[in-house]
Amino acid sequence: MSSQRPVSPKLRGPARILVAVYAVLAIAATGRSAFQIVDRFGEAPIAFSLSAVAAVVYIVATLALALRRDRLAWLTIGFELLGVLVVGALTLLAPAVLGLGDVDLLDRAFGREGTVWALFGLGYLCVPLALPVIGLLYLARTRRPAVASAG
Amino acid sequence: MIDVFTVILIAVSVLAGVLAVVLGLLGRKPADVTILALVVVELLLLAQVVIAIVAPIAGNPPTGNLGEFWVYLATACLMPPAAIAWALTDRTRWSTVVLGVAALAIAVMAYRMNQIWNVQLG
């Protein structure tokens, strides 16, 4: 695996934890949304679809970070930050937009219709909110001139 | 589900997780103590698998969604081997933290599994 090679010395440091936490979140979001879609898609199609999109983006972001595909990492992690902010706000203030109008507040994150970005990722201890911020800071601090696409 | 077992699983996972995160941040490379802690977590997860198979037969069926429960349990079972494989291939202090992250994630998943098994769904 190219991720085992010292593509960038930085990746051998604490960035490994970032990749590991991303991997865990990617697995968690993928498993949950896949099950919700197979089991009960009709109950909240918009929320579950967004959840599946989030899950796929987490997988791509994990790989982009691990392989130091910086541009792809910027795009996917930025998308996640946007997603968690928009969906977090909607689930809090306007749940009807996502078809969750009659779901109790906390159930939007923890319950049957709960999704990864709901209530700013509360169901995942707000890791979905903190992680993209840490990820973008990491990318900014380790920005490599010119060789960014060599990954 | 057996509530006491869930408490044990969560407690051991949290202990293993905190231990590994602290040792990792102190600069320790993955060692017997941290890897064995994850092995213990994996053994408890496998015991949970046996409990989840036997419990419905023995008159302790879930009120929640059994399929969703199994997605969580199966995923949790894969995490210690993955984290240990990581620790064995990348022998740095950060791998010790990764072991801890995996154990803490399992603690959260065990809590969710208990919720899913017990909560009455519509």
Break the fold down into its secondary structure elements and pairings.
The complex is a heterodimer of chains A (151) and B (122).
Chain A: H1 15-40, H2 45-66, H3 70-93, H4 107-110, H5 127-141
Helix pairs in contact in A: 1-2, 1-5, 2-3, 3-5
Chain B: H1 3-25, H2 32-57, H3 66-89, H4 93-118
Helix pairs in contact in B: 1-2, 1-4, 2-3, 2-4, 3-4
Describe what you observe in this structure.
The complex is a heterodimer of chains A (151) and B (122). By secondary structure, chain A is mainly α. Chain A has one domain (12-139). Helix content of chain A is 60%, strand content 0%. Chain A has helices at 15-40, 45-66, 70-93, 107-110, 127-141. By secondary structure, chain B is an all-alpha fold. Chain B has one domain (3-118). Chain B contains four helices and no strands. The longest helix of chain B has 26 residues, at 32-57. Chain B is elongated, with a radius of gyration of 15 Å. The model of chain B has no long low-confidence stretch (mean pLDDT 92). The interface between A and B is medium-sized, with 19 and 24 residues.
Radius of gyration of CA atoms of chain A, rounded to a whole number: 16 Å
Largest sheet of chain B: none
| SS strand fraction of chain B | under 5%
User: Count of DSSP E strands of chain A?
Assistant: 0
Q: Per DSSP, what share of the residues of chain A sits in E-state strands of 2 or more residues?
A: under 5%
Assign a percent range to the helix content of chain B.
Answer: over 70%
- Given helix and strand content, the structural type of chain B is mainly alpha
First-residue to last-residue Cα separation of chain A: 12 Å
Query: What pattern of helices and strands is seen along the backbone of chain B?
Result: HHHH
Number of helices of chain A: 5
Give the low-pLDDT segments of chain B.
Answer: none
User: Number of DSSP helices of chain B?
Assistant: 4
Topology pattern of chain A, helix = H, strand = E: HHHHH
Q: Gap between N and C termini of chain B, in Å?
A: 20 Å
Number of domains of chain B: 1
Q: Quaternary arrangement of the chains shown?
A: heterodimer
How many extended strands of chain B? Answer: 0
Spans of at least 5 consecutive residues with low confidence of chain A: none
Radius of gyration of chain B: 15 Å
